[in-house]
Amino acid sequence: MVGETFLVAPDGRGGTSYTWLTGPNDGYSFGSSPAAETVEQHGEHIRDFLAMIDPQTGYVGG
């Protein structure tokens, strides 16, 4: 899913919140803990999340 946009922000508990801004479901997000330390780690978290998305529903799982 090239070209997707995420809002990446601290979650206030030592992790990171990722909100999928260009996804089909308004406000859909996921979190990761502990917080990523590099841009590459953020990218890995996002790629892993997108790999779980059902293209029919736009949600994780089927």
Automatic annotation (TrEMBL):
Name the source's superkingdom: Bacteria
Recorded protein name is Uncharacterized protein
The top of its lineage is: Bacteria, Bacillati, Actinomycetota, Actinomycetes, Propionibacteriales
